[in-house]
Design brief:
elongated, mainly alpha, about 0% strand, about 75% helix
């Protein structure tokens, strides 16, 4: 089975996730710039989540450029990833509405951890049906960024109950790690 339908379906779900998040941005009823100030936490949570969803979309796209074929296990692993990503609008709205309170920030981190684990499961499912010397296997390598991201997000969850801003700073660090382009797949596919 080819990966075209998996990519198309995933692109659609991710587009819907972003759309749901932006619909949570409610404009104020007062035509004054000062009315935007209380909405700042909502916007910050939206921007952070937009970056994370964008990172997943970009990496998913690059990953599937190296995929030769998929099977049922990969389809379910991909749905598992999409399930966790689909919860991002909920936790985004919650942290924005509560101005980054401890429980919402912790749950946000838990969703990020589960999405990262789901992505890892999906890559393992893909690797299991590709040869050890395939473009995919060569491109993924040891996946240091994936492992360190999970570790940082896991650490951030309990820290939300100490100081939520520390957790948020760790989430931003993970995003920055992934914003630095990972050229492994592009280099491998084009060479």
């Amino acid at each position: 089975m080819t990966s075209n339908r998996v990519e198309a379906f995933s692109d659609g779900v991710i587009a819907i996730i972003i759309t749901i998040m932006v619909l949570e941005l409610r404009p104020p009823h007062i035509p004054d710039l000062a009315a935007l100030r209380p909405l700042l936490p909502v916007f910050v949570s939206y921007a952070m989540s937009f970056v994370f969803v964008g990172i997943y979309w970009s990496n998913h796209h690059h990953l599937f450029q190296a995929v030769e074929h998929v099977n049922g296990g990969v389809l379910w692993a991909n749905l598992h990833l999409l399930f966790w990503l689909s919860l991002i609008p909920f936790v985004t709205a919650w942290i924005g509405e509560t101005h980054f309170a401890a429980w919402p920030v912790a749950l946000y981190g838990l969703v990020l951890v589960m999405a990262a684990i789901a992505y890892t499961i999906m890559t393992r499912a893909l690797l299991s049906i590709h040869a050890d010397d395939s473009v995919l296997a060569i491109a993924l390598g040891r996946d240091f960024k994936g492992k360190i991201s999970i570790a940082i997000n896991v650490a951030a969850v309990p820290l939300a109950f100490v100081k939520p801003w520390i957790s948020c700073a760790l989430y931003v660090i993970v995003a920055v790690i992934w914003l630095v382009p990972d050229r492994r797949i592009e280099r491998t596919v084009t060479s």
